[in-house]
């Protein structure tokens, strides 16, 4: 009865919202003249206070293209946007849609960068890497052989509010921004890698969740394709708000899928309990095949149900 009531509420909520037209993105971009990227737009000028560089070559080789590159005037989209629609290819022939997102707005990034410089080095602008390397937390990271709860204590990410050692080991073992992941120990992480991992966990844990709970293993998250500077690239999904005002059977299907996702978040083979600290119209997304996924994992908390049995 509780499940039926929840489904009814979800159906009503989706049906009563105003319709938002979805803009379809072309599946095969037209060939355009070469464009020289600015490091500032990507956030590469901030590295190693960034997410990573694993997919930068794709941008520079134009194997990832923004939708604005399909227009008559080749130009970068506005830098103040949080997300962009793009196209991705591995062979320059077949293309697929991707989402290109920032962990937070450029304005907030810039304000945070300025505060770091002001508080640590007493200047308005500085080398962020140099400033962050001076912090007590990062000095502890440099000496650590293993990522332990005390190293992430106080970080604002909901995922790290009560982290178990098992969860932290999973983060290190599956960290996709290094080529030789697989060990729970951080010996394979350079100082640069540690700073990037700490930065990502501090700002927004969304890309880390996509890496450690991949879609190919049945987790309800989009595929993580890589990052460049302060941009993350993942498989494209349509936000749930695009289905406001859809046919009743479509709305009912989306509601049932949300309930199934919520059940899997509480009961799964790895004994992790996931919970939302915030939900809005952009939290869930739908792939082109109709499957519903968690589009924004930044507000997910995790409780390790095995913690109390060890």
TrEMBL record:
**Signal sequence segment:** 1-22
> Pfam families, from UniProt?
PIP49_C
List, alphabetically, the GO terms of the cellular component aspect.
extracellular region
Q: Which UniProt keywords apply?
A: Secreted, Signal
Q: Where, per UniProt, does this protein localize?
A: Secreted
Q: Which residues form the FAM69 protein-kinase domain?
A: 198-307
User: What InterPro entries does its record include?
Assistant: DIPK2A/B, FAM69_kinase_dom
Q: Which top-rank group of organisms is this from?
A: Eukaryota
In which family does this protein belong, per the annotation?
A: Belongs to the DIPK family.
Q: What is this protein called?
A: Deleted in autism-related protein 1
Species: Cariama cristata (Red-legged seriema)
């Amino acid at each position: 009865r509780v499940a039926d009531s929840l489904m009814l509420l979800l159906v009503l909520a989706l049906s009563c919202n105003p319709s938002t037209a979805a803009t379809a993105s072309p599946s095969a971009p037209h060939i355009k003249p070469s464009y020289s990227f600015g490091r500032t737009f990507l956030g590469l000028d901030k590295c190693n206070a960034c997410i990573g560089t694993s997919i930068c070559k794709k941008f520079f080789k134009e194997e990832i293209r923004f939708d604005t590159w399909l227009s008559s005037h080749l130009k970068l989209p506005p830098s103040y946007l949080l997300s962009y629609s793009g196209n991705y290819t591995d062979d320059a022939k077949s293309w697929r849609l991707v989402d290109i997102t920032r962990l937070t707005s450029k304005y907030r990034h810039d304000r945070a960068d300025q505060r770091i410089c002001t508080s640590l080095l007493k200047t308005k602008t500085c080398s962020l890497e140099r400033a962050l390397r001076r912090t007590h937390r990062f000095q502890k990271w440099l000496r650590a052989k293993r990522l332990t709860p005390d190293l992430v204590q106080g970080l604002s990410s909901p995922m790290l509010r009560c982290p178990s050692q098992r969860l932290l080991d999973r983060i290190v073992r599956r960290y996709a921004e290094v080529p030789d992941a697989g060990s729970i120990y951080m010996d394979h992480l350079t100082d640069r890698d540690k700073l990037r991992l700490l930065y990502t966990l501090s700002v927004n844990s969304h890309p880390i969740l996509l890496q450690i709970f991949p879609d190919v293993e049945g987790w309800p998250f989009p595929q993580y394709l890589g990052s460049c500077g302060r941009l993350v690239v993942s498989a494209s999904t349509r936000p749930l708000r695009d289905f406001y005002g859809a046919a009743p059977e479509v709305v009912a299907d989306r509601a049932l899928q949300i309930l199934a996702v919520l059940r899997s978040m509480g009961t799964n083979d790895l004994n992790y309990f996931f919970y939302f600290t915030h939900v809005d119209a952009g939290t869930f997304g739908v792939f082109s095949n109709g499957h519903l996924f968690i589009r924004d994992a930044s507000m997910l908390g995790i409780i390790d149900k095995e913690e109390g049995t060890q």
